[in-house]
Design a protein that fits this description.
11 helices; 0% strand; 266 residues; mainly alpha; 2 domains; MetI-like fold
Length: 266
């Protein structure tokens, strides 16, 4: 008679331990930041009680509000331009054949892998070569470069799940190519477009390196304002502002992923 030995599984596997350590490493600094943003003491290292005064202080800080306004203008303008160009780029690459398509496709998504410092320096050199003065709109132009790639990538992934015969059917029924695009293809692409725009919005809002190279005098964005203040030391109001940015970015990213996942199911 063969007697098989039963092997008991360990209560906690090494995969679970590794996952826990990874999440602790990733999110413990954020938890500490949130904890000290409610610190009564103006010095982050000393806990003296709970308060929300640092969050209230942000609402009356003109420099913070001005930097926030600049960041929102840059992000909204860059995302709006990228939404149109990125969608057209993704549709063109997916639906049409033309000379140099592979090369164009590789160049289009190159900003996804190029370091930010390289994009920042290249943009600054380009602006200087054509004697274009730095301003808020040069930041917008620089942000369009990487926002366009992200929107195009998300829309392209959405296009792979669509049936191309629906457009052909619309054309057979008498629709023009423009009508087929607006009434048939565009509604199906909308979840991908919205998800790509939200992702690009978060990246534009949080960008520091490219903005600092292409910003004109007096046009600080929110990350640039935070960096300029942190040189004097980390103050509780900066902790509060950083926490608000993290929460806002997480919410927008969660909405974008939910929209993209819902679009893939449909």
């Amino acid at each position: 008679m063969n007697i098989s030995k039963s092997h008991k599984k360990p209560l906690v596997s090494w995969q679970a331990v590794f996952s826990i350590l990874m999440y602790v490493f990733m999110y413990l600094p954020i938890m500490v930041l949130g904890f000290y943003s409610f610190n009564q003491s103006p010095y982050s290292a000393n806990w003296q009680g709970f308060t929300i005064k640092w969050y209230i202080k942000l609402l009356s800080d003109d420099r913070i509000l001005s930097a926030l306004k600049n960041s929102l203008i840059v992000a909204l303008c860059a995302v709006s331009i990228s939404a149109v160009l990125g969608t057209l780029m993704a549709v063109g690459l997916a639906r049409y054949q033309f000379f140099g398509k592979k090369l164009y496709q590789g160049i289009s998504y190159l900003p996804l892998i190029i370091p930010d410092i390289a994009i920042a320096v290249a943009t600054l050199v380009f602006l200087a070569a054509f004697a274009i003065p730095l301003s808020l709109w040069t930041i917008v132009a620089a942000h369009v470069v990487f926002c366009l790639a992200y929107v195009g990538l998300v829309v392209s992934s959405r296009l792979t799940n669509l049936d191309p015969h629906l457009e052909e059917a619309a054309l057979d029924l008498g629709a023009t190519p423009v009508q087929a695009f607006i009434k048939v293809l565009l509604p199906q692409l909308m979840p991908g477009i919205v998800a790509g725009c939200l992702l690009a919005f978060v990246l534009s809002l949080d960008d520091f390196l490219i903005s600092s190279f292409t910003a004109g005098s007096g046009y600080n964005t929110l990350p640039m304002e935070i960096f300029s203040r942190i040189k004097r030391g980390v103050e509780p109001d900066i902790n509060a502002l950083s926490m608000l940015l993290i929460v806002a970015s997480a919410i927008v990213a969660l909405i974008a992923e939910s929209i993209r996942a819902l679009g893939d199911k449909n």
